[in-house]
Amino acid sequence: MQIVAEQVGKKYRKEWIFRGVSLELSAGTSYTFVGPNGSGKSTLLQLLAGSLPATEGKLTYRVNGHALDLDDWFRHVVVAAPYLELIEELTLTELLLFHQTFKRFKSGLTPDQIADRLLLTHARHKEIKYFSSGMKQRVKLGLAFFSEASVVILDEPTANLDRQGAAWYHEQVRQLSPDQLLLIGSNVPEEYDFCPNILDVTRWK
Ligand SMILES: Nc1ncnc2c1ncn2[C@@H]1O[C@H](COP(=O)(O)OP(=O)(O)OP(=O)(O)O)[C@@H](O)[C@H]1O
């Protein structure tokens, strides 16, 4: 799996958030986009995820050297981010069952096993709307960690997590498969201390 960005730029109204982003991001490693608040990390991750259109430039998704149709690309990517909402009316078990209908979990993990791995066994039958912000964040991360996907995108992964949650994040993120491509948006060094490729988005201002 490879994401290729060629001279990609994003403009909101009259303001360019970034321009001239040219990157080849390949599976088997991780990349972290860093930069101050408002510098464009989330915007760039959303472009790379295919959920926001670029204003200029081209993004290509390749599997084994072949370009993927954008309609197929969504099968390959999972995103956990503060701006993505969970379905609040569902219980955790219902949410996991629903998720499974469009994205399989790794190695046939069942919803109960996922709840155990999220350290949320006790909350399986509780509606998501009654979860604390840290519990919701663990669910979002878990959906990303435990789904079959070639590309895992994590924006501000430890937002709302306490020390135990942050330790859980570190344990899980290190267990991602070497075949997966991991992209992180962060300005918290502890979130990406294992990551070999750090890209400051202000270089594209
Ligand atoms: N929908 C939008 N319309 C107009 N401007 C936007 C929109 N979304 C983001 N922006 C602007 O784009 C810039 C980059 O925002 P972005 O959220 O990507 O930054 P960030 O680096 O992720 O910030 P943070 O660290 O605070 O999460 C900001 O100036 C923001 O105001």
Please, could you describe this protein's structure?
GO terms for molecular function: ATP binding; ATP hydrolysis activity. This is ABC transporter related protein. Keywords: ATP-binding, Nucleotide-binding, Transport. The protein is α/β, with parallel strands linked by helices. The chain has a single domain, classed as Rossmann fold. Helix content is 26%, strand content 27%. The strands form two sheets. A five-stranded parallel β-sheet has the order 6-7-8-3-9, with helices on both faces. Strands 2-1-4-5 form a four-stranded antiparallel β-sheet, covered by helices on one side. The mean pLDDT is 96. It binds adenosine-5'-triphosphate. The site of adenosine-5'-triphosphate has 12 residues, from helix 1.
Q: Please tell me how large the radius of gyration is.
A: 17 Å
Which CATH first-tier class would you pick? Alpha Beta
What fraction strand? 25-35%
Level-2 CATH architecture: 3-Layer(aba) Sandwich
Structural class computed from helices and strand pairing: alpha/beta
If strands are numbered along the chain, what order do they take across the biggest sheet?
A: 6-7-8-3-9
Number of helices: 6
How can the largest sheet be summarized? 5 strands, parallel
Sum up the overall morphology in one term: globular
Please state the average pLDDT score.
96
Helicity level: 25-40%
- Tell me the CATH topology: Rossmann fold
- Compute the separation of the termini in Å: 27 Å
Strand segment tally: 9
In the CATH hierarchy, what is the superfamily?
Answer: P-loop containing nucleotide triphosphate hydrolases
Unreliable sequence segments: none
Q: What's the multimeric state? A: single chain
Structurally, how many domains make up the residues?
A: 1
Could you state the order of secondary-structure elements as H and E?
A: EEEHEEHEHHHEHEE
Bound molecules: adenosine-5'-triphosphate
